Amino acid sequence: MLDYRALEALAAVVSQRGFEKAANILHVSQSAVSQRIKQLEAQLGQPVILRQTPPVATPLGLKLITHLQTVQHLEADLGLHNQATGRVHARIALSADAIATWFGEALGRITDEVDVDLILTDQDKGIELMRGGEVLATLCADGTPINGARVDRLGMMRYRAYANQDFLTRFNLINDFDNLHKAPALIFNEDDQLQHRFLALLNQPAPQNPIKCPSTEGFIQLAATGCGFGLMPEIQVNQSILYDRLIDIAPDHYLDVPLYWHSWRSSGEVMKRLRSSVIKTAHRWLRFEY
């Protein structure tokens, strides 16, 4: 049987980014924290944490932290866990675009009940973390059901290709975007395929000059200052103070990305309330299929 004091030590070291701070919040010595984790690793026969600065959980360690959080949620339902604060913890995987647009409204309704670690990942990749047991929930573009989990279709996030006037003029894209693939294209990271999919929609090859920008705010800023074109959520651009400096390159062409909420059925009442809040908020912001 797992030693839950050791799991709590593991989770504390990862969340507090160090053994000393973990010991402080657990009210034990630093050596006690280290010893608990060593005993856990001896029991399991493999490491659960990489001892670097800051310490990082191994894939097994992440699964154990998710297991601990699931148990804590169930204990909270019984009124047994963390009675002093009534709070539980949850790791949730989602895209930076969701955080930058509408997810905060959903999360804000329950932050008095839960401490959340938001794990940024591409919307096509979040389901892999869910399948691996590394998170309690994920918001992603894959609706494939996972054993033991619920899946809710939320709606569609519409993406359009934006650039500024100077960029379109310099690359001769004002009236003809047949060579859009030759122009600098903003991508979030190596997993971001939206620009590739949009160019394929226009019967063009992959972008020849990608510019990596792992920031949603930076994406808009770079596009607004003529550095490149990029696929961005329509609702984010409409709310941006740089809205009047961005032009929809191809108004008749766009990408609608479906979004799904996956959550474990055994994750407790707080996560059920978050699920309801996510569905409610998504219906306010996302598009529906007709």
TrEMBL record:
Pfam families with a match to the protein in the record: HTH_1, LysR_substrate
Molecular-function annotations in GO: DNA binding; DNA-binding transcription factor activity
Bilayer-crossing regions: none
Gene3D superfamilies for this protein: 3.40.190.290, Winged helix-like DNA-binding domain superfamily/Winged helix DNA-binding domain (1.10.10.10)
Coiled-coil ranges from the UniProt annotation: none
Family annotation (InterPro entries): ArgP, LTTR, LysR_HTH_N, LysR_subst-bd, WH-like_DNA-bd_sf, WH_DNA-bd_sf
All copies of domain HTH lysR-type, residue ranges: 2-58
Entry keyword set: DNA-binding, Transcription, Transcription regulation
SUPFAM superfamilies: Periplasmic binding protein-like II, Winged helix' DNA-binding domain
Organism superkingdom: Bacteria
Cross-referenced PANTHER family: HTH-TYPE TRANSCRIPTIONAL REGULATOR ARGP (PTHR30579:SF2), TRANSCRIPTIONAL REGULATOR (PTHR30579)
Family: Belongs to the LysR transcriptional regulatory family.
Name of the molecule in the record: LysR family transcriptional regulator (Chromosome initiation inhibitor)
Originating species: Reinekea marinisedimentorum
